[in-house]
Design a protein that fits this description.
The structure holds two protein chains of two kinds.
Chain A: E1 3-9, H1 15-23, E2 40-44, E3 47-51, H2 63-74, E4 79-85, H3 89-100, E5 106-111, H4 116-119, E6 121-123, H5 125-132, E7 135-138, H6 147-155, H7 169-177, H8 183-192, H9 196-204, H10 209-228, E8 229-231, H11 240-245, H12 251-294, H13 299-337, H14 339-353, H15 360-369, H16 371-377, H17 384-393, H18 403-414, H19 420-450, E9 461-463, H20 472-507, E10 509-510, E11 513-514, H21 515-529, H22 534-542, H23 550-562, H24 570-579, H25 584-595, H26 601-611, H27 614-642
Parallel strand pairs in A: 1-3, 1-4, 4-5, 5-7
Antiparallel strand pairs in A: 2-3, 6-8, 10-11
Helix pairs in contact in A: 3-10, 7-8, 12-13, 12-19, 13-20, 14-15, 15-16, 16-26, 17-19, 17-27, 18-19, 18-24, 18-25, 20-23, 21-22, 22-23, 25-27, 26-27
Chain B: E1 12-17, H1 25-29, E2 37-43, E3 49-54, E4 57-62, H2 63-66, E5 69-73
Antiparallel strand pairs in B: 1-2, 1-5, 2-3, 3-4
Classes of the chains: A alpha/beta, B mainly beta.
C-alpha cells in the first residue's frame, strides 16, 4: 500500500541523513541547526517521504518552522515519522507530544542510538513504547543500524496511542470551545490569540496560554524521561575541546588557522592538477583545430568555436575545478564535525555590537561556498530585520567562484617565485583579504542597523551540537558531486554563451575598431579613476552571470588585442597583464573589486526570491558596488599622492 | 538572581521568565521552562554570550537575553 510519510524532528537530529538513506537522494546534511530549508520529497518503494525543515515545536517562530508546523497540523499524510536525538530525549519529547496531539499515527525513531553507550546513557525503549503507545525504533542513520526494522514498522503500522496530555482545566475548556481540526490546532490558535473571546477569558483569569501549555507538556516530558532514561554515574558532557575552541585567547586564532589551513591546502594542492589540465586542454585544442580544418568548417566558425567557446570553457574548468574539489570536501568535513556553530558562538560578540544576529556568522560561512546558498540559509534568522542585514551583506564574503581569481592575481603580483614560503605568503594575503571582507560585513551591518534597517538586536539562541565524527568517504562523494560539480556545471552553462558573446564583441567591428574596444574605451575613464581600466570593468560586467569567468574574460579581451593565444602559465599571464598597463596598484584595486562589487545574477535572483522585494534586491546590488568603488578610489588616491 | 549572573559551572533552577515577547517563547522549545536545571559551561571570547547545559543539550544565549530569566541556585 502506498503511504505518505512526514519526516519530523528537531534541527540537526539526522533527519536529512535518514532521508538520504531511505531515498538514495543527496539532500545536504551538516552538523548544525537549520541545514534543511524547504521541503524535500523522496521515495522509498511504496513510501513517499517528506523531509521537513527541523523544528523544536509546532508553535512556529520562523518561516522555516511555519512550513513544518502547517504541514504537520494539516495532517495530509499517513504516518508522522518523528526522529529524535537519543542523547537528548527529554527536549526532543516536546515535539513528540505535540505531534501526538495532532495525530495518532506516529512512529518514533531514536537516532544516534550507537552513541548512548559511550555517553553512559541507557534508554528503556520498550517501556517508552508502552508509555506512548506507539512504535519506537532505535536507529543510527549514519551507520545504517535499524533502518530495515524501521521500514518494517512503518509498513506494518498499527496505532494504539495511550498517552494523553492533560492541560489546565481552563485551557481544556478553551480547546473544546474553539473550532479546530485537531487538539493541537486548537492549542496553537489559543496561543496565537486567534479567538478574541477565549483570549480575553484566559487573560481575565490570569493565564498565559503558552506558559501553561508548555508547562503541562514539559512536565509530561520529564515524567517520561525519568522513568525510561538511566544515566551512569560518570555521565558528563565532554567539554575539553569546546574549552579550547571557545577560549578567549585560543578560540579565534584556532579558527583563523583552520581557515588558513583549508585555503593553503586548496591552493597548493590545486597548482599541480591545474597545470596538468591547462596542458591537456592546450594539447587537445590542436587536435580539435585539426579536425575542424579536416572537415572543412569555415574559418570564422572555427575561430568562434576554438578561441571563443573552447577557450573560455576549458579555462573555467582548469582554474575552478581543482581548488573546488579540494575546498568543498574540507569545508564539508568541518561542517559535519560541528565547527560552524562554534564559529558563530565565538563571533557573536561582534555581531551583537553590529546590532545583528550571531547566526549571520553561519550564513557568512556558507557564503564562502556560494553566496546564493548563504542568502537562502539566512532563513535560519528569525528576525526579519536581521535576516535582511545578513542577505544584503552576504556577497561581501568571497565565494568559491571568486577564490581562483583572487589567488591567481595574488600569485602574479605579490609572489616572486613559487616556493613553500611563498605559497604561505599567498595564503596570508588571501586571509587578510578575507578578514577585510568580514570587517566590511560587520561595518556595513552596523551602518544598516543604524539607518535603513534600524533596530536593536533581537532575542537569539544557537545550539552547539555534540561533535560528530564525519564519515570521510561520504563527505568526499557528496561534496564533489553535489557541490563541486553543481557549481562547476553552473559556471560552464554560463561560460558557453559568454565565450560566444566575447568572441563576437572582439570580432565584430563598427567602423575601425571592434565592439569590445568601443565598450572598453567607453568604460576606460571611469575604470582609470578607480585604479582599474575599461577592460577590467567590462569583464566584471560581462561576468555578471558568474564571477568565475571575470578573469578569463579579462584575459581573452587583452589577448584579442595582442593576438597571443597560448597562456599556459601564470608568468605569461602576468606578462600579458603588465604589457596592458597593469601595476601593483591595478592588482590591489582588482582584488578589492573582486571582493566588493555587485552579486552575481544567481545570487541576485535568490535575493529577489527570498526577500520578495525589488527594493532590497536593488540595494543588495548597489551597496557592495558603492563599497568597492569607494575603497578603490581611496587606494588609487593613496597611490597618486604617495607613490 | 538572573541567569546571566550565574558563573561558569554554577547550577541554577529557572524560577521565572520575565518577558512576554513572543520570541522568548523560543526558550520554552529549548527546554528553558520554570523548574528546569541549567548551568553555564562556556563563555565566548567577547564575554557577551554564554553556552548553557540544559536537558542534555548546549544552548548559547546572549547575556542581554539571559538577564530576562530569573534563577536560583540548585
Amino acid at each position: 500500500m502506498h503511504k505518505k510519510i512526514a519526516l519530523i524532528g528537531n534541527p540537526n537530529v539526522g533527519k536529512s541523513t535518514l532521508f538520504n538513506e531511505l531515498t538514495n537522494m543527496h539532500q545536504h546534511t551538516g552538523n548544525w541547526s537549520g541545514k534543511t530549508v524547504g521541503v524535500a520529497i523522496g521515495k522509498h518503494k511504496n513510501l513517499t517521504i517528506y523531509d521537513l525543515p527541523g523544528t523544536y515545536s509546532l508553535i512556529p517562530h520562523s518561516k522555516e518552522e511555519e512550513i513544518t508546523s502547517d504541514f504537520v497540523i494539516d495532517n495530509n499524510y499517513d504516518i508522522a515519522l518523528i526522529i529524535c536525538d537519543a542523547t537528548m530525549l527529554e527536549r526532543n519529547l516536546n515535539l513528540v507530544i505535540q505531534t501526538l496531539e495532532v495525530t495518532d499515527n506516529v512512529v518514533l525513531c531514536l537516532n544516534m542510538i550507537d552513541e548512548l553507550k559511550k555517553k553512559g546513557i541507557n534508554i528503556d525503549i520498550d517501556k517508552l513504547s508502552n508509555i506512548l503507545g506507539i512504535s519506537v525504533v532505535g536507529i543510527s542513520a549514519k551507520k545504517k543500524i535499524g533502518i530495515d526494522k524501521l521500514i518494517d514498522v512503518i509498513n506494518n503500522f498499527k496505532s494504539n496511542k495511550t498517552i494523553k496530555i492533560e492541560y489546565e482545566k481552563e485551557i481544556e475548556d478553551s480547546i473544546k470551545s474553539i473550532d479546530s481540526i485537531n487538539r493541537f490546532d486548537a492549542v496553537r490558535k489559543i496561543i496565537n490569540g486567534d479567538n478574541k473571546l477565549v483570549c480575553n477569558y484566559l487573560n481575565d483569569i490570569g493565564i498565559i496560554p503558552v506558559d501553561s501549555v508548555m508547562k503541562s507538556i514539559y512536565n509530561k516530558c520529564s515524567e517520561i524521561t525519568n522513568s525510561v532514561v538511566k544515566k551512569d554515574k560518570n555521565y558528563s558532557y565532554k567539554r575539553k575541546l569546546d574549552k579550547i575552541l571557545t577560549n578567549k585567547i585560543t578560540g579565534i586564532p584556532i579558527m583563523l588557522l583552520m581557515l588558513i589551513g583549508i585555503l593553503y591546502i586548496s591552493i597548493v594542492g590545486a597548482n599541480y592538477p591545474s597545470s596538468i589540465l591547462f596542458n591537456f586542454f592546450a594539447w587537445f585544442k590542436n587536435i580539435i583545430s585539426n579536425i575542424l580544418v579536416a572537415v572543412h568548417i569555415p574559418s570564422v566558425i572555427r575561430d568562434l568555436l576554438i578561441n571563443g567557446v573552447y577557450q573560455v570553457l576549458t579555462w573555467v574548468i582548469a582554474v575552478m575545478l581543482p581548488p573546488m574539489a579540494i575546498f568543498f570536501p574540507l569545508f564539508t568535513l568541518l561542517e559535519d564535525l560541528g565547527i560552524l556553530p562554534r564559529i558563530a558562538f565565538n563571533l557573536d560578540g561582534y555581531f551583537e555590537h553590529a546590532n545583528a544576529c550571531g547566526k549571520q556568522a553561519l550564513t557568512m560561512c556558507m557564503g564562502f561556498g556560494c553566496n546564493a546558498v548563504g542568502v537562502t540559509n539566512a532563513r535560519i534568522i528569525d528576525s526579519k530585520r536581521e535576516r535582511l542585514i545578513a542577505i544584503l551583506t552576504n556577497s561581501f564574503i568571497p565565494c568559491n567562484g571568486r577564490f581562483p581569481a583572487l589567488i591567481s592575481i595574488i600569485s602574479m603580483f605579490f609572489i616572486i617565485e613559487s616556493t613553500f614560503f611563498n605559497s604561505l605568503l599567498n595564503v596570508l594575503i588571501l586571509t587578510l583579504l578575507i578578514l577585510l571582507s568580514i570587517f566590511i560585513t560587520l561595518i556595513v551591518s552596523k551602518i544598516l542597523s543604524k539607518t535603513i534597517l534600524k533596530g536593536l538586536p533581537s532575542f537569539f539562541t544557537i545550539e552547539l551540537p555534540p561533535y560528530r565524527k564525519p564519515s570521510v568517504i561520504k563527505v568526499i562523494i557528496r561534496s564533489i558531486f553535489d557541490r563541486t560539480l553543481f557549481v562547476l556545471g553552473r559556471a560552464l552553462i554560463i561560460a558557453l554563451p559568454a565565450g560566444i558573446v566575447i568572441w563576437l564583441l572582439a570580432n565584430v567591428s563598427i567602423g575601425e575598431s571592434s565592439m569590445i574596444n568601443i565598450l572598453s574605451d567607453f568604460l576606460n575613464p571611469f575604470g582609470i579613476m578607480i585604479g582599474l581600466d575599461g577592460i577590467i570593468l567590462l569583464a566584471f560586467i560581462l561576468g555578471f552571470p558568474a564571477n568565475e569567468i571575470v578573469v578569463p574574460i579579462m584575459m581573452m579581451t587583452y589577448l584579442s588585442n595582442s593576438h597571443l593565444v597560448d597562456i599556459s602559465s601564470l608568468d605569461t599571464m602576468k606578462n600579458i597583464l603588465v604589457s596592458n598597463g597593469w601595476t601593483i596598484k591595478t592588482a590591489i584595486c582588482t582584488l578589492i573589486f573582486i571582493l566588493f562589487h555587485f552579486p552575481c545574477s544567481t545570487t541576485l535572483l535568490t535575493i529577489k526570491k527570498e526577500t520578495g522585494s525589488v527594493k532590497w534586491t536593488i540595494l543588495s546590488f548597489i551597496i557592495p558596488l558603492v563599497v568597492g568603488v569607494v575603497l578603490c578610489l581611496i587606494v588609487n588616491g593613496v597611490f597618486i599622492l604617495f607613490v | 538572581m538572573h541567569l546571566s549572573d550565574l558563573k561558569i559551572n554554577d547550577i541554577g533552577i529557572i524560577k521565572k521568565i520575565n518577558s512576554f515577547d513572543s520570541e522568548v517563547r523560543r526558550l520554552y522549545d529549548l527546554g528553558f521552562v520554570v523548574g528546569s536545571q541549567v548551568s553555564p559551561i562556556l563563555i565566548s571570547p567577547s564575554k557577551l554570550i554564554k553556552a548553557y547545559l540544559i536537558k542534555d543539550s548546549i544552548i548559547a544565549i546572549r547575556n542581554s537575553d539571559a538577564s530576562k530569566i530569573e534563577v536560583e541556585y540548585a
